[in-house]
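User: Continuing from earlier, I have the next pair ready.

Assistant: Great, send them over.

User: Here they are, in order.

Assistant: Folding the first of the pair now:
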Amino acid sequence: QVQVVESGGGLVQVGGSLRLSCTASGINIRLKIMDWYRQGPGKQRELVADITMVGFTDYADSVKGRFTISRDVAKNTVYLQMNNLKPEDTGVYYCHVRNSDYWGQGTQVTVSS
């Protein structure tokens, strides 16, 4: 049974930082493209960052230079380091296994101004 579980969300002030974690079970993240999505209030879910099997990364323009996706294959965990947070980064952040129906339950990030 495949599970992905996010953690690390919370309330932070503008300019602050958070690190989200996504721990997977039932799959080997080294063999998958792993995605971080987010859904802001009243907005569609959008792809924020991804990391490929060989470790290549890509980011939405809105977070480039502020967010960093990484992984620890020994822990089967993907991270999203978020720096210089802005109010528009507020939303529920989801971990996803590319080309699958496997999603986490989401973790809330709220950036207050």
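And the other member of the pair:
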Amino acid sequence: QVQLVESGGGLVQPGGSLRLSCRASTSTLNYYAIGWFRQAPGKEREGVSCISRGDGSKYYSDSVKGRFTISRDNAKNTVYLQMNSLKPEDTAVYYCATDRTSVCGSKWYVYRVYDYWGQGTQVTVSS
């Protein structure tokens, strides 16, 4: 059983920044690739980013490339999503997830691939 907990969401003005955290209760997080997803009201869950174990290969959706950065701190069992230059269209509930593999697969952006999810954290970008 993998338990993931997201934190760091909130209300921010356009152009602002937030850092989301995804923490596991045990060091098991360090063995797995971790994906970040988001879901806006009325929309399907969308893959945002993924980081592999080990060399930490990273992937981003086109909509966030250049603005968001994914990283991991194995000593803290935590994966981060640094979000800069936020836009109103980034407003969504953000989730971290894993399919308990060690690398981000070719379908890393497909939510059905993942079987363990956190509860989500709300990000609202508004003036």
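Worth noting for the second one:
The mean pLDDT is 95. The first strand starts at residue 4 and ends at 7.
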